[in-house]
Each structure stands twice: as C-alpha cells, then as structure tokens.
Amino acid sequence: MPPPSDIVKVAIEWPGANAQLIEIDQKKPLSSIVREVCDGWSLSGAEQFALRYADGPQLYITEQSRCDIKNGTILRLAISPARAARQLLERIQSHGIDARLEALKELAKLSADPTFAAEFITMEGIGTLARLVESGTHFGEMLAFTLTAFLELMDHGIVSWDLLSLSFIKQIAGYVNQPMVDVSILQRSLAILESMVLNSHSLYHRVAQEITVGQLIGHLQVSNQEIQTYAIALINALFLKAPEDRRQAECTNPLDQQLTEMASTLAQKHLRSIILNHIIRGNRPIKAEMAHQLYVLQVLTFNLLEERMMTKMDPNDQAQRDIIFELRRIAFDGENDTGGTEKRKAMYTKDYKMLGFTNHVNPATDFTQTPPGMLALDNMLYLAKLHQDTYIRIVLENSSREDKHECPFGRCAIELTRMLCEILQVGELPNEGCNDYHPMFFTHDRAWEEFFCVCIQLLNKTWKEMRATAEDFNKVMQVVREQITRALAMKPASLDQLKSKLRSLSYSEILRLRQTERMSQDDFQSPPIIELRERIQPEILELIKQQRLNRLCEGSCFRKLGNRRRQEKFWFCRLSLNHKVLHYGDLDESPQGEVPFELLSDKIHVSDVKSVVTGKDCPHMKEKSALKQNKEVLELAFSVFYDPDETLNFVAPNKYEYCIWTDGLCALLGREMSSDLTRSDLDTLINMEMKLRLLDLENITIPEAPPPVPKEPSSYNFTYNYS
C-alpha cells in the first residue's frame, strides 16, 4: 500500500553527525518537526533552527513552501533565517577584515533566499550595506560581494528603490566612470544602475545626470562580452524610461551629453560603429542575452520614428507643402515655373500625377492618414536628395509608360512605409523573450531610410515583373511584403547582402516558392486521394505523438523569470522513460546536453496531473506586473496543474519548445495535440507519405502480356498492344 500523500520520507543532515531518515507529516506544524529533528541530535533551542534544502539554491523551507518537499529529498538543519541575518549583520560590521569578507561572501549567497532576505531587510540590513558602499572604504572582493548582496536583496521587491540616497547613486556611478575597475564590481554597478532606472522614475533622472554616453561607449570596446551586455542594457533602460520630449532632443556633442537626449545619440556613427565592430563583428559569438539587448536597442531606435509615423500632414502648413514642391522640383528640374497662375496650376497637377500621388490637385492630403503620416514624406525626400538618380529614374520611367502599367511612386512610397512600420513593429515595446535583431541595421547611420530606398526599388522592379496595372496594386504589395520578410529572415549582414537576397527573390521565384509550399493544399484533392489522407492520418498522428514524448524524455532547460535577465537562473524538466513521472530541478547554469534524472530532485506523477493551461490563464502570468506582460512571453507560457492544487509553471525558450511541450503534455493526458507545429508536421508528413505511395504506384512494372494463343479464324479482327 502506498504511503499517505501527506507523509514525505526525507533525509536530514547536520555537520558532524549521521543523517536522520525521517517521515515528515505535512499536517504537523513545521516548528514541531524541527524540534523533533533537534531532539534527535540533542540540540537545544529548537526555535533557533530551521530546515533548508541541501542541494541546488539551498532555500529555507517555510510553511508556504513545505508542500514542494518530495519523497527522497535531502534536507539540512541550519540556523534560522532570523538568527543567520542577525549574525551576518553583526559580522559585516566587525573590525576584522577577514571576518567581514567571509560574512559578505556568505551574505551574497544567502540574499537570493526570499525568507532570509525578508529577515535581513527587517533588521535594516540594506541600509547597512548602502552605508558601507557610501563610505568608499571597500574594494576588490569585499566590495563585489557587498554589491552582489545588495542587488539580490533589492530584487525581491520588498524595499522601494526610491529610498536610496544621492550619495549612494554617485558612488555606484563612480565605479562605472572609473577607467580601471574590477570586472565583477563593474558588472554589479551597471546592473544596479539599470535596476534603479527601470524601477524608479525619480532615480532615472539622477542616474541620467551621472552617466554619459561617452563613459558607456568605453565599456562597449572591452573584450568582456558580459560588460558589453550590461552597458547596452543600461543604455536601453535609460532610453526606455526617457521622457518623450527628451528622446527626440537634438544635441551637439553626443559623447558629453547626458543620456536623457537619446535620439541623436543612437544615430551617431561613433556609437553605431563601435557596436558594429566590437560586438556584432567581434571575434566572439554573440550570446542570447547580448542578442536580446541588441534587439531591444534596434526596437527603441526604430520607435523614434513613431512620432513622425503618427503625425498627420497639415495641408495648410506651407513648410510641409514645400517638401512636396521639393520632390517635384528634383524630379522635373529642367522645367521652369514660367507662365500664369492657371498654367502653373495645370502643370503642377500634371506633375503630381506623374509623381504618383492619389490627389493630383493637393497631394498633401495623401499624407493625412496615420500610420504612416509624415514618415512616408520623410522617406521620399531622403530618396530624392540622397539617391537622386534612382529617384528621377523611377519617376520618369513610370511617367513614360502606358497609363495602365505605370507604377504610382507616391502611392507606393506611402503604402511601403506603412508596410515597413508593420514588419519592424515601429511603436511597439520590445518583447521580453525576443533576440531577433538584424545586423544590417547597425551598418549605416540612416539604416531606416536606406532600407526604404532598397525596398522602393524592389517594389518598382516587382511591378514591372508582374506587368501590373493600377488594379493590381494590392497584389503587388503582397508580393513585395513576402519578398522583404523572406529576405529579412535570412538575416543579411549588410544592406548590400539584403539587395543580393532580394534580387534572388524575384516575382517568378516567389511564385515557385508559393507553389511548392501550397502542395499540401493544392495537390491531392480528388476523392480517392482525400480518402487515402484520412487513412494515413491516424498513423502519422501516432508518429508525431511518439516524437513529442521522446522529446519530453530528453528534457528541456527553462529560464526562471526574474528582474534581471543577466543573472539568469535555470531549471530542467524531463519525462521518465516509462512516461509516468515528470522530473524537474534547479540548475546553476544552462546545461550542455541531457541532464541525468539523479540531478533532478523534484517530480510529479503524471497520474496526478489534472490539466494544462497556456497564455494568460497561467498563474505566473497573472502574478507578473503589466510592464512584464508582453505578447512574446504570454505566447510561450504554460502551466501544469496537479494534485493537490499545485502548479508547475513554464516559459518556453522559443515557440518550437512551447509546441513540443504543450503537445507532449496533451498526449500524456490523452488529449488532442493542437499546436501550429503539429498541424504543420501532420500536413508535411502526410504529403511525404502520400508522395511515396503514389511514387510506388507509378513505378509498378506491368508484366508483358503473353503471346496470343492461335485461334480459329473468325470474322472479328483484334489488335493487340504489347506495350
């Protein structure tokens, strides 16, 4: 008979003594269990002790967390969190340097424990650490452990960042500004400044006054990618929290400016070229966190376009109308404006029609829709001034075509700008789990405008290849969108590579790719083939189910959601080979390959699993703040509900792993696998199987018919075909 569910068998260790093997009754108070353990070793003062896990993060066990204890867990008897906090607080203020160093080292480790952190903070421990930093008397390892403990304690969210003094901020900023400082101190200082900015509006202004772009640029030129990552993360944080008016501010010397003026900073060649040469084109592979920070920087840079994108043109604003006049002047420079008012008006109307505007009389009205608003006009003017030959060629080439085949430059440029804003998600906040940066956008000071210039030439070329007319406008834009998204997916390293990839994606190539990808829908539509598909489908579904379960048996690594991505914590989960138990446990770092079951201390019996939920229905998605709630994380979140009323919460590293795990868990529970990946795999495998079977039919060799047996002559004539 299995033991009752509220009885857990564990081993408990104590230094210098044999381990106790006991049964914990989960109905009994935790204090009673600790007292019994202390009695087993004849230890007095049971209220001064507590239980901790012996492996992994070694967290304290509380009444709230005791339900996580599993059979076979190894625990350790330790001094209570309150007692540990009191002792460490006394030791870090002692006069002995060695004793203080050991205390700070232990504090840095214990501070990640929420139970200990609450006790230490209650005793004004954070204030003590802040004063140690402000004193400026700590250096080297001692300072590094102090900053680590401070950051870990603050990350629990118990104390407001607003309580920090200006003296503390200046001291931390000083470590960042020093030309020579220990790497560990620099890392933690950058992380603390980033957390200040992200968690406090008032501290943002103070940090922005202490840190300049020039000081952070220096940290981008080092060989340590961790330091580079922290530096870019701080730039991103300051940029993200900057007031709207200061993001767009102009400045003269970007290296001496404060980071509150970000718009021109990110466009400066010096910063861009350093990121390109020292990070993107550096001699080290870019890690996931660096890729994320580059993606965030890319998004925030493009978001500077949002104001222009959402600004309507005022048809009565002469300065704005002058831009349209300039477009006309550049395109038709050889034609002067002589003649009367009516003649000039008629000539303008003709020219605006040749420029491809929808409203030939007052083209300003073409820019009143947002998006893309004035951003489209900015792009057109950039093309006309910086790529004048290309601009004139496109305009004159189309004005000389037959009316039905002319490509309307103005209308195309406006719609293309709107499309590029959608593709690059201009105006949207960065996604927490996304690493999708494009190296080519770091290769030019005006990357957005140059990207537009490449794409408008593509549009003109595709229009000619399709022999399109005005009625085909939307079809052309759909093809161009597909060409651009396919090219971006190849991650070209430069704008020249983008041009090369777009040249290979001609209209005929897009048609070929579409035809290939539509095989599953367009082929095999006859009734016999449909019947064959239905017969094959159960076999293929079973194959997919087995593949999903095999992947669960191999296991996956998941990242724990926290306040600081660079202090990443991981855990691993895998299914037992008999498909009856889910094993999981914490890891110190991301594993290379499979993790043995022995290292995964926790487990859930599949028979106890009640349901699997995804997205916003997950408990850990409801608990997170609105700032953290973005589409990317929601799409990767899922939770397992199991008896008694417990959950195991996941955030998959990518969409593929999300589909694998949700499908596999559904298969374990005997439910339908419904992810996009399953549907795609099902179609692909069915089509492959059908093609093989049809190929076998085509290759059947029909034996030759035997020679006819001579018969009596008759009045009928037969013609035999022996082929």
Automatic annotation (TrEMBL):
Localization of this protein: Cytoplasm; Membrane
The protein's matches in InterPro entries, at most eight in alphabetical order, are given as: ARM-like (IPR011989), ARM-type_fold (IPR016024), ELMO_ARM (IPR024574), ELMO_dom (IPR006816), ELMO_domain-containing (IPR050868), PH-like_dom_sf (IPR011993), PH_domain (IPR001849)
Query: Which residue numbers delimit the ELMO domain?
Result: 319-488
**Does the keyword section mention Cytoplasm?**
yes
- Note the CDD domains from the entry: PH_ELMO1_CED-12
The alphabetical list of record keywords is:
Apoptosis, Cytoplasm, Membrane, Phagocytosis, Phosphoprotein, SH3-binding
* Gene Ontology molecular function, alphabetical: SH3 domain binding
Tell me, in one coarse class, where this protein mainly resides.
cytoplasm
Q: Which SUPFAM superfamilies match?
A: ARM repeat (SSF48371), PH domain-like (SSF50729)
Any one GO cellular component localisation term in the record: cytoplasm
Any idea what job this protein has?
A: Involved in cytoskeletal rearrangements required for phagocytosis of apoptotic cells and cell motility. Acts in association with DOCK1 and CRK. Was initially proposed to be required in complex with DOCK1 to activate Rac Rho small GTPases. May enhance the guanine nucleotide exchange factor (GEF) activity of DOCK1.
Tell me what this protein is called.
Answer: ELMO domain-containing protein
Task: Give the species.
Answer: Gadus morhua
Encoding gene per record: elmo2
